[in-house]
UniProtKB/TrEMBL annotation:
This is Oxidase FUB9. The active site is at 258 (proton acceptor). One of its GO terms (molecular function) is FMN binding. CDD domains: alpha_hydroxyacid_oxid_FMN. InterPro entries: Aldolase_TIM (IPR013785), Alpha-hydoxy_acid_DH_FMN (IPR012133), FMN-dep_DH (IPR000262), FMN_HAD (IPR037396), FMN_hydac_DH_AS (IPR008259). Glyoxylate binds at residues 136, 171, 261. Transmembrane segments: none annotated. Residues 1-363 form the FMN hydroxy acid dehydrogenase domain. Belongs to the FMN-dependent alpha-hydroxy acid dehydrogenase family.
Length: 370
């Protein structure tokens, strides 16, 4: 762990990036092709300004929201990200413990370096926590079904079906450095050893287990027939797909572009959020990830119609910086910052955060009301 003060997520990114080997750092931090979307995911939050209401009693604020029938401490959860043992040997176990300690929920990647049972147990030993299981449509349906059944038996509350990855994105940075997962780090959820994963990465990339012939009709009714868990779609960017998710009876969507790692030059998630939330009309849960790096980003996402935000890279940076404690630090930074943003904006409960709390800069004009 480095000695400098880590006060914000940018500090954490810097500290972690100094610790990580260059190829791993680039694998974590990069996006696809020209890196347009990975950058814009964060910078697009800067279009918005918060309009505070003053002289309001904010001595007691509640930052809690209810998710999977339990309150979480604030509207932020940790996105599923693969290969967390590349950041710290404890990998997903540390993330699960940190989420439990902070009172929030965790997404488990199909490419986790620990089993779903180990990850859920590690968190539950610390405190109440819910997990969701991230899933790809797979060519091997039997294996996909085994993943779902084990996740359900381990207590996961939902499947997050990642819909944006029929094939892998174009990752120049990863390919330049020849990134490969370290030997000895297995992927038990997809039932692969590190050697098999290395071979696969060489041959045709991680996504070769995914099914490029997936479809709503093939996946959703089948998933519904094999599990009672909630079904969420991760990787939605259009109101049309929100509508389709509703038609298929899905429980929620994550507005996501995979942190800019799949199709580059898709819009920043915060830029499509208002239209997606409007299309949902309360019929399906709308969450968002991509570029969330501060309490005011969370505040803005909620004002624009999201129920909850998720973060990927900040968790990886926390892990690399100091394992479980690093992820706890990341979650605490965002919690304190979000709570303070609410107080300074004059909101004492989540339901008071609305579009009227925001102004926007449009095409170099003056600040406009939304
Ligand atoms: C290193 C890395 C690995 C990831 N692995 C997965 C994965 O296995 N499955 C998945 O659905 N998303 C994966 N994601 C995407 C995240 O779930 C999430 O959508 C994204 O990181 C959010 O953007 P942010 O990193 O800017 O917060 C990964 C992201 C990163 C950075
Ligand atoms: O790199 C990614 O974005 C990703 O989704 C992934 C998939 C498999 C293993 C590691 C990461």
């Amino acid at each position: 762990m480095a000695a400098e003060k880590v006060l914000c997520i940018a500090d954490l990114e810097k500290a972690a990036s100094q610790i990580l080997p260059a190829a791993t750092r680039d694998f974590f931090n990069s996006g696809a092709t020209s890196q347009v979307t990975v950058r814009e995911n964060s910078s697009s939050y800067q279009k918005y300004r918060i309009l505070p209401r003053v002289l309001k009693d904010v001595s007691q604020v509640s930052t809690k929201i209810s998710l999977f029938d339990r309150d979480i401490s604030f509207p932020l959860c940790v996105s599923p990200a693969g290969l967390q043992a590349m950041a710290h040997p404890d990998g997903e176990l540390a993330t699960s413990r940190a989420c439990a300690k902070a009172g929030t929920n965790m997404g488990i990647s199909s490419y986790a370096n620990h089993s779903v049972e180990q990850i859920t147990t590690a968190g539950k030993e610390i405190g109440p926590i819910h997990h969701v299981m991230q899933l790809y449509s797979m060519a091997d349906r039997e294996k996909e079904a085994r993943i779902v059944r084990r996740a359900e038996a381990a207590g996961c509350k939902a499947i997050f079906l990642t819909a944006d990855s029929p094939v892998l994105g174009v990752r120049y940075n990863e390919w330049r450095t020849g990134f490969l997962p370290s030997p000895g780090l297995d992927n038990p959820i997809i039932e692969k050893t590190s050697e098999q994963i290395q071979q696969q990465s060489h041959d045709d990339g991680f996504s070769s287990f995914n099914s490029a012939s997936h479809s709503w009709a093939k996946e959703i009714p089948w998933l519904r027939s094999i599990t009672d868990m909630e079904i969420w779609i991760k990787g939605i960017l259009t109101p049309e797909d929100v509508e389709t998710a509703i038609e298929y009876g899905c429980d929620g969507v994550i507005i996501s572009n995979h942190g800019g790692r799949q199709l580059d030059e898709t819009p920043a998630t915060v830029d499509v959020l208002p239209a997606c939330a409007k299309a949902a009309r309360g019929r399906i849960r709308i969450h968002i990830d991509g570029g969330v790096r501060s309490g005011s980003d969370i505040f803005k996402a909620l004002a624009l119609g999201a129920e909850c935000c998720w973060v990927g890279r900040p968790m990886l940076w926390g892990l690399a910086y100091n394992g479980q404690q690093g992820v706890e630090l990341m979650l605490d930074i965002l919690y304190q910052d979000f709570k303070r943003s609410m107080q300074l904006a004059g909101c004492k409960s989540i339901s008071e955060i609305s579009q009227s709390s925001l102004g926007i800069f449009r095409s170099d004009g003056p600040l406009a009301r939304l």
